[in-house]
């Protein structure tokens, strides 16, 4: 891909990928210890690199505590490699919540840092299964408002990711649908299992053998900017995630692929062996 095309598509990548962090699965971060989840649980620390057309466009550090009943997760997301010379993103995100059997019940979500040309801060709280925006700075009056009736039952992106990992760990499969709300945009996320499969490109000695593959489709449905009627970001974004058991860390996402409507295939790779911390 020509350099200018990649850079011009960078804003779209940051808009659709960073706030949702994917519907692209377990990119969570190591920005200190994670609050809320039982401190007796070990903290898993992972790192990921994000590639678009061979360019390293983002780096993600990750840490989380996850049990059968609760989770705490934080994330540090920043532009990386050559891409970071032209665009800057530096976000800290965090979320906490609980599980009722296989159902996730988020408590809070927060995202703060530099994105789309300025500092931004979004905070969500949950009341009776309703995500409530407690902080949105700056406001975005050029974007359509998502009605409360449509937000009912929606969860934040990190809750969706932790719910997926929780399901993989407890049932060794993945399936289901969710509404995802990031404070501005409402999306749908559907998942289904494919089964065990060898990773497309192998991996280090610690992993790279047969992995549990989960396919998903994410699609923004509401919260578009008023001038985006023909935006390709309205299209479904299919993807695939592979999970492997790695030592004491248990199941970890080792590879994620997202078919972005503007930038094509985005690949997210585990960078180094996960670490366990107290």
UniProtKB/TrEMBL annotation:
Highest taxon listed in the record's lineage: Bacteria
InterPro entries: DUF3108
Protein name per UniProt: DUF3108 domain-containing protein
Species this protein is from: Acetobacter malorum DSM 14337
């Amino acid at each position: 891909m020509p350099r200018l095309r990649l850079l011009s598509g960078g804003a779209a990548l940051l808009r659709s990928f960073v706030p949702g962090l994917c519907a692209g699965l377990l990119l969570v971060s190591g920005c200190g210890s994670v609050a809320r989840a039982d401190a007796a649980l070990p903290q898993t620390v992972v790192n990921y690199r994000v590639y678009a057309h061979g360019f390293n466009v983002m780096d993600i550090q990750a840490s989380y505590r996850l049990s059968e009943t609760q989770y705490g997760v934080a994330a540090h997301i920043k532009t990386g490699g050559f891409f970071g010379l032209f665009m800057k993103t530096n976000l800290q995100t965090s979320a906490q919540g609980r599980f009722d059997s296989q159902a996730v019940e988020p408590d809070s979500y927060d995202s703060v840092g530099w994105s789309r040309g300025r500092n931004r801060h979004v905070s969500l709280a949950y009341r009776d299964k309703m995500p409530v925006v407690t902080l949105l700075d700056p406001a975005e009056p050029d974007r359509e408002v998502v009605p409360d009736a449509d937000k009912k039952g929606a969860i934040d992106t990190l809750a969706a990711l932790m719910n997926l990992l929780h399901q993989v760990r407890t049932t060794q499969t993945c399936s289901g649908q969710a509404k995802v709300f990031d404070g501005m945009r409402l999306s749908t996320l559907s998942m289904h299992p494919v089964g065990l499969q060898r990773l497309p490109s192998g991996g280090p000695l610690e992993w790279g053998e047969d992995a549990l593959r989960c396919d998903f489709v994410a699609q923004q449905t509401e919260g578009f900017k008023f001038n985006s009627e023909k935006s390709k970001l309205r299209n479904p974004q299919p993807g695939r995630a592979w999970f492997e058991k790695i030592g004491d860390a248990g199941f970890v996402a080792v590879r994620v692929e997202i078919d972005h409507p503007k930038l094509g295939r985005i690949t997210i790779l585990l960078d180094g062996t996960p670490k366990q911390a107290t």
